[in-house]
Amino acid sequence: MITGNVPDYGEKAVKLLFTQLSSRFNPMELSVQETNKILKVFIDKFSRTNFSGEYEYTLLIDLFCKILEKVNLLGDRSVPFLSPILRKIYQQANFLDDKEIINSLFEVTASKADKSAVLRVLEPYIKKERVCSSPLLPKNCFIYQEMLDGTVLVGIEVEAQRFDVKYHRRDFKQVGHPNMLFLFKIRGQEVLMSQLVCIKDKLLKPTTQLYRYPFSNVFKSLSCCWPDLQSYKVKDLSMVGTLPYAFINSPNNDHAYFGENLGEKFYFLQDNDFNHEDLTPIEDGLTLSDWLELQKFEKK
Fold first, then answer.
1. Which residues are within 8 A (CB) of 161 and not within 5 positions of it... i.e. 6 or more apart?
2. pTM score, two decimals?
3. Long-range contacts at 195-199 (CB < 8 A, ≥ 24 apart)
4. Which of 45-59, 179-193, 208-222 has the lowest mean pLDDT?
């Protein structure tokens, strides 16, 4: 209280007195209101002081770090404090050369920022190169997978329609067929395997229910009885799209047929669409996702 009226020539004495008092001062013994008053005065004086020397600059850094340690960075009340700090860091980021700090800061901010903003920042640094590209796929291809052993899995969907059918020595015109899914395993130019299932869904989903092919030449394992399949040489992937029609147009017999009187079925389906309600579900409720997953474990 007395030093408030000390003339200029007593400033040195006041500083010495203040240094001695502050060394003995314990802010924990003051009330919150008294501490706030002292801090307000200190901040006011501090904001008008010009720090230029290296020693003073180091003290400022230490002071800032001590204050930062006292702030609960995870608390809601820290937002008004952190926001101006981050704003200052943002303004001076262009002058920062410490790569380790810059990289760490980027990792933290990237994890907090919107993904669109992160991609927008990274775009100039990402080469426009293809990560993965499939060949030109055949029409109605619903899956294309390349296995590590060089095997290629290709699925072709054939929509419900009518086909001419040869059964033993008889010809049946425009026989209704259900929606069909053909699956081919190919290595090089050789077709290793073909499977056939039917579906009711018009839009394929992982949960799409699978049904048995209602005619002949498809075993319970879903594999097609197709003796001359390996005679087809796949020189171009687009050729795979024609294989289902080669199977449909091949002669039918009673081999691997699990119904009664196939000839009578063909007769009544002439010039008629197939009724999908007549399809038989595959055991265990096999879905499209299940079927494709099984291909990973099938022996070649």
1. 176, 177
2. 0.59
3. 195/221, 195/222, 195/223, 195/224, 195/291, 196/222, 196/224, 196/247, 197/222, 197/282, 197/286, 197/291, 198/276, 198/279, 199/288
4. 45-59
Q: What's the CA gap between 108 and 126, in Å, rounded? A: 20
The pair of three-digit structure tokens given for residue 223, joined into one six-digit string: 């594999």
Give me 82's structure tokens: 């952190």
Give CA 189 to chain center in angstroms.
Answer: 33
Largest CA distance in the chain: 127
Confidence of residue 4 (pLDDT cuts 50, 70, 90): low
List strand residue ranges (DSSP E) for 118-242, in order: 141-146, 152-158, 161-167, 170-177, 179-187, 190-199
Which of 160, 183, 172 lies closest to 251, judged by CA? 172
Q: What is the H or E stretch that residue 58 is in?
A: helix 54-70
Tokens 């109605």 belong to 140
